């Protein structure tokens, strides 16, 4: 069964044997491209020569009228907007978005979703220098996020008005959180060209921040991810104390703790606010206990690898009550939930 992923990108268009492909740099004129990827198999996430993925309906500045209608009239009752992290080439982003749609669609509860992804320029290379370049590119993509949200907001609004109990979630993973912070800073406000928080609040139900590669105090800062608290009904912060990439690379390069390691240090100050903290450090089962091999060996991809984390995110996306979610233990001292493996 073919899966569609709708996308926007500020990457450069490239010519070559692969049709409708985009590169690792910014678009030459600063414009955004929009289109649809149709994935016929989820078996291969590779960038080049992937015959499982075909891109069509590419347009500059916004989705074509036909795709706008297709998204707004989607049969699913949930629309998931995905922001990727470090080390992704363009087509890898589309494949990952398709896999996430399949992953959450198999959750408990199941959340079949219409998938919309934005891809900012990433080198798709795993090195310290590439990390620094990607982080800078995410920072410089704030204006692109603003243009993207201005374009898709009417579509998201039409989607929600298209049927009962329709919901919209923004999901950022790893460095995608830094892209989101830069984007919210550029997009949300009362200055000319910005979007009023109330306009987003009427459309976005949940913001999910997973393994956040953002400064540890970002939620407390008016120019940080604290902006997200004003654009949705609830924000969910999923973190892991043993996150290897955030501890060994991100924290060292940026010189400050990362939100995705232990959440903010002042979690108790958020009591009464529309934010939930979920510690996933205990939710990483062995696949080979003798060799100490974990399901998520980097302690960083749990949002897409560990079923208990997936199910918790599914419950959050559907708006289930925090106190009724399975496998959770609330820690009043610290104001967070510990997520455990199912017994």
Count of individual beta strands: 15
Could you say which structural class the secondary elements and strand pairing correspond to? alpha/beta
Radius of gyration: 19 Å
Approximate helicity band: 25-40%
Low-confidence segments, given as residue ranges, are none
Main sheet makeup = 11 strands, mixed
Essential attributes:
eleven-stranded mixed sheet; alpha/beta; single chain; 343 residues; 23% strand; two-stranded antiparallel ribbon
Written account of the structure:
By secondary structure, the chain is of the alpha/beta class. The protein contains ten helices and 15 strands. The strands form three sheets. It has an eleven-stranded mixed beta sheet, sandwiched between helices. The protein has one domain: Rossmann fold (3-Layer(aba) Sandwich), CATH 3.40.50. The mean pLDDT is 96.
């Amino acid at each position: 069964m073919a899966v569609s992923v709708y996308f926007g990108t500020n990457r450069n268009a490239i010519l070559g044997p692969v049709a409708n492909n985009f590169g690792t740099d910014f678009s030459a004129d600063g414009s955004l491209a929009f289109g649809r990827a149709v994935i016929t198999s989820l078996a291969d996430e590779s960038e080049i020569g992937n015959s499982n993925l075909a891109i069509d309906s590419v347009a500059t500045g916004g989705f074509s009228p036909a795709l706008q209608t297709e998204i707004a009239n989607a049969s699913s009752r949930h629309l998931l907007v995905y922001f990727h992290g470090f080390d992704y080439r363009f087509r890898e982003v589309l494949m990952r978005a398709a896999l996430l749609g399949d992953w959450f669609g198999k959750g408990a509860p199941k959340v079949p979703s219409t998938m919309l992804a934005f891809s900012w320029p990433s080198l798709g290379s795993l090195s310290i220098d590439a990390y620094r370049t990607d982080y800078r590119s995410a920072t410089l993509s704030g204006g692109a996020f603003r243009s993207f949200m201005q374009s898709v907001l009417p579509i998201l609004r039409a989607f929600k008005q298209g049927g009962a109990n329709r919901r919209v979630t923004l999901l950022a993973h790893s460095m995608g959180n830094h892209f989101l912070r830069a984007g919210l800073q550029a997009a949300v406000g009362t200055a000319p060209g910005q979007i009023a928080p109330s306009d987003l609040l009427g459309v976005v139900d949940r913001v999910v921040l997973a393994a956040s590669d953002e400064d540890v105090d970002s939620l407390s800062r008016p120019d940080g991810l604290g902006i997200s608290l004003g654009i949705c009904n609830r924000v969910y912060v999923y973190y892991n104390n043993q996150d290897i990439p955030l501890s060994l690379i991100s924290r060292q390069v940026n010189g400050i703790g990362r939100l995705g390691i232990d959440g903010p240090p002042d979690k108790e100050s958020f009591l009464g606010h529309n934010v939930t903290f979920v510690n996933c450090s205990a939710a990483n089962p062995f696949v080979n206990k003798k060799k100490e091999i974990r399901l998520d060996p980097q302690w960083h991809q749990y949002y897409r690898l560990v079923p208990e984390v997936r199910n918790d995110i599914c419950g959050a996306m559907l708006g289930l009550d925090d106190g009724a979610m399975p496998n959770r233990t609330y820690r009043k001292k610290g104001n967070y939930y510990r997520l455990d493996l199912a017994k």
